[in-house]
Amino acid sequence: MRRWVMSGVGCVAVLSAAVASPAISNELMLPLAGTITGYAPPSEQGGAVPSVARGQALGIACADIRSPGAEVQVVMQIAHVMGETATGYDAVLATEQKLGDGTVHVRIPDVPGISQHTVNVKVYVTDSTGTHSCDGGRVRIV
User: Is residue 63 included in any domain, yes or no?
Assistant: First the structure.
């Protein structure tokens, strides 16, 4: 059994069923290598951060999603941007997901207090070669 240890980071798990349908037409796609149009790197020296609504679909391309048996986790860590209020938690684990051809599709969780916050999106992939991660960039949840 594998255990996730996130030192100093509280994690709220949103429990829901896996998505069994194809990508939603209103889905925001984050391309490979986490470089999206308007992407703001963690140093906040970039352009505008794309916005998504709670419940909206988000697709993150990740080259490490290549084996059918891979275990994939998407973590949305609160970016603590100046002017945004405290949420009472540091990260959210998106559990409503569907894997497809190098991409993970998740639904933005409807967690209390997450709207009007910027999150750093990170994808963790564990397969027979080990655990790898992909940076999905930043999005603002509205």
Answer: yes
Quickly state the pLDDT bin for 114 (edges 50, 70, 90). very high
User: pLDDT-based confidence at 121, cuts 50/70/90?
Assistant: very high
Around 27, how many Cα atoms within 13 Å sit in the side-chain half-sphere? 20
- Report if pTM > 0.90: no
Q: How many domains would you assign to the chain?
A: 1
